[in-house]
Amino acid sequence: MRAHVVTFGCQMNEYDSHALQSELAAAGYSFVDDYREADLVLVNTCAVRGKPVEKVQTLLGELRKEKRRRRDLTVGLLGCLAQLPEGRRMGEKFAVDIMLGPGAITEIVPAVERGKYRSFEFRSELQFYSPPPPSGAVSAHLTIMRGCNHRCTYCIVPATRGPEVSRPAADIIAEARALEDAGVVEVTLLGQNVNSYGMAEGTGARRRGLSGYPSFAELLRMVGRVGIPRVRFVTSHPVNFDDRIIEAIADTPAVCRYIHLPVQSGSNRVLKRMAREYTVEFYLDRVRRIRELLPDATISTDIIAGFPGETDEDFEETLALYREVRYDAAYMFIYSEREGTPAALHFGDVPREIKVERLGRLVDLSKEVSLERNRAWVGREVEVLVRGPADEGGLLVQGHTRGNHVAIVRGYLSPGIHRVVVAEATPNRLYCKTDASQSFGSDARLYQLTSKP
Length: 453
Prior knowledge:
Elements: E1 2-7, H1 11-26, E2 30-31, E3 40-45, H2 50-69, E4 74-79, H3 85-93, E5 98-100, H4 108-114, E6 117-119, H5 124-127, E7 139-143, E8 145-146, H6 157-161, E9 165-166, H7 169-181, E10 186-190, H8 216-224, E11 230-234, H9 243-251, E12 258-260, H10 268-274, H11 280-293, E13 298-305, H12 312-325, E14 329-334, H13 342-346, H14 352-375, E15 381-389, E16 396-401, E17 406-410, E18 416-426, E19 429-433, H15 442-450
Parallel strand pairs: 1-2, 1-3, 3-4, 4-5, 5-6, 7-10, 10-11, 12-13, 13-14, 17-19
Antiparallel strand pairs: 8-9, 15-16, 15-18, 16-17, 18-19
Helix pairs in contact: 8-9, 9-11, 12-14
């Protein structure tokens, strides 16, 4: 049979889709790039915001038409959206054959064999798996834990991914070694809240460790000793991002000094309504410690514009925090109501036009600060993991620095790690050359005119 897998959402979904494809390949499936040529179409979904849900609904509508044309076509709705009542209603509406929550995707082969199948259990033995290393890839993802114990009022993740479950350290190290043997030079450790790895029930900073599990800081050091040159991790929660983690990053050369630390808002009043469990002052102390111990670290964040009840004063406090921290990058979103969350049930919404205006101001500020931060790299030598040709073609290749900057390099370089010199910068790109005497030339200016934010 021929299969086609569509993935929406985060890096963990990408990892899950790779595992899906591995399971299907082992069962004899081949893969096609066009769903119109497939016998089996699997849609691995995201439910964090409204936009990806809308995209899933549009795709399911197209697949329903295709099923009317080809009655032997099997369609599966998988992942976070499938775990929710909203997704289950969608599955019934669009005549989906298979529905599997994120804790059950390894059941895919028997599910297809049964024809009609539903599974939404959070079973720990199904949540972790070690798919074969991606063929020829220089980078890979590695799941170390799943779920989240925090209960942010806007977030649907606890309902879709369940409570925190840590993967045994021995399994993590074994998979990391397999990736290293396969030639992978960068691995990203994944979890909804990686800082809680190895911790017992609860959410606070004083939680005790699970018997037989290292802390996340200890795990970082263990993975750092495997031999993979670059180790990353996402995502962090400020409450659990303690000094031990910062010290482990400082002490472990393989760990990239890039930290994604979502703040969501710069207003204590809004943070309390969000149930984020920290204050602005606490968050700024974490940033201060990062800057002290990791002066060359790059820091990115997530910010929600227009959370229910956010006033003009609250938003100005968010802008002030952004200016103080001076983030290298930010992922900014308009608040998107998610069915069943406390924010959707109990808080009034902010008018959309105000959300859009606030998001625009955030984006403008982020471009200003990112340009300043990126220009500080001009003239410096950096390490870039080249992944392949730049999207715009020409004599350009694209990759990422250890600080997660997108780097465009003039000239042909094979996939892998290279030392280059930063020649120019924009808010979202570093333009690099292979030696200090090389001129980047007109390609860089053309790229700046055509590049996407």
